[in-house]
Amino acid sequence: MRTEQEIMELILAVAKADERIRAVLLVGSRANPAAPKDHYQDYDIIYFVEDITPFYNNPAWVEKHFGKPLIMQMPEAMRYAGGDGNFNYMMIYPDGVRIDLSFEFSKYIDDGEPAVVLLDKDDGRGFLPPLLDPSDKYWHIKPPSPHFFYSCCNNFWWCLNNVAKGIARDELPYVMAMLNGVVRTELHDMINYYIGVQHGFNLSTGKDGKYFKNYLSPELYAQYTATYSGSNYTDIWTAVDVMCDLFHTLAMTVAAHFNFTYRQEEEDGIREYLRIIKRAIGII
Fold first, then answer.
1. In 3D, which of 50, 80, 38, 47 has the Cα closest to residue 66?
2. Three-state secondary-structure class, residue 77
3. CA–CA separation, 153 vs 159, rounded Å?
4. Measured at the alpha carbon of residue 263, what is the angle toward residues 261 and 268, in degrees to the nearest 5?
5. What is the Cα–Cα distance from 33 to 66, expressed in whole angstroms?
6. Cβ of 184: how many Cβ atoms within 10 Å?
7. Which residues on neighbouring strands pair with residue 71, listed in sequence order?
8. 122-168 pLDDT, tens per residue?
9. What span, in angstroms and rounded, lies between the C-alpha atoms of 150 and 261?
């Protein structure tokens, strides 16, 4: 695998040789000083150009300068893409390097997401305003309001009814979609609130909670891992039960810290409904 220095030199050499490319910005995890560094990090690069036309849906140009990748994705050229006129090339190369190259033609708006200026041919008079030193503050956990806390709890418990009905109907794809796409999202929010209570809200747990292990106790993290299951319905029921117990533990701690009301009757109601479904299908 090529080194970071080699890739950066390539990215800058291409930009410096083409007057149409006016600025280069590094974003993503490599711009985040708090993100763990390894060989698998993407190179998230933005080329700023005044005219997007020569670079729009032109993979031949990219391959000419960066080489032929093992696979490329161009989101704006795909059937479900929206877009704002910019164009992205996402590429994985034979040595394992991944480069996500975006062409943009509007002035960069600093929203606080970590970013590092690699090149600015116009010295702040063009696409790039002065930027603060990058930090991960943009990704920090946000304390919940009472409304957000209640919404998280209510949606977690409510949507478990869909999981139970899906199991009863033998609708495995629906079960997994509800459990891992909806219910787990609320669990992740509650885990973040809990971690914020325990460690402070000046940290990030990463995309999709990838750093949960760093902040949860070994016992709680083991309980969290047990919320994942295979396709066997008995295992799924076990995972649901563990998920319910974990959510309760976390939510009670968060509620106590913020002096929020935890509506135990909603939890009791859905747990009774789960028992109804289990009895109906002969689990208990």
1. 47
2. helix
3. 10
4. 155
5. 26
6. 19
7. 92
8. 998 999 999 988 988 999 999 999 999 999 999 999 999 999 999 99
9. 8
Q: Which CATH number is associated with domain 4-138?
A: 3.30.460.10
User: Closest Cα to residue 65, out of 28, 21, 105, 15?
Assistant: 15
Strand, helix or coil at 78? coil
Q: What is the identity of the amino acid at 189?
A: D
All CATH 1.20.120.330 domain ranges of the chain, comma separated, are 140-280
**CATH class for the region spanning 140-280:** mainly alpha
Residues of the chain with CATH 3.30.460.10: 4-138
- With beta carbons less than 8 A apart as the criterion, state whether 78 and 57 touch: no
The H or E element that residue 45 is part of is: strand 43-49
Q: Rounded to whole angstroms, how far apart are CA atoms 14 and 20?
A: 11
Q: Which residue has the tokens 């600093």?
A: 110
For residue range 58-90, what is the model confidence (pLDDT) as tens digits? 999 999 999 999 999 999 998 876 667 899 999
Record the tokens describing residue 177, joined without a space. 């979609």
CB-based contact 91:99 (threshold 8 Å): yes
- The structure tokens 């933005």 sit at 46
Task: Evaluate whether 213 touches 225 at the Cβ level (below 8 Å).
Answer: no
For residues 114 and 34, give the distance between their C-alpha atoms in angstroms, rounded to a whole number. Answer: 10
Region at 109 (left for phi over 0; alpha for psi -120 to 50; beta for the rest)? beta
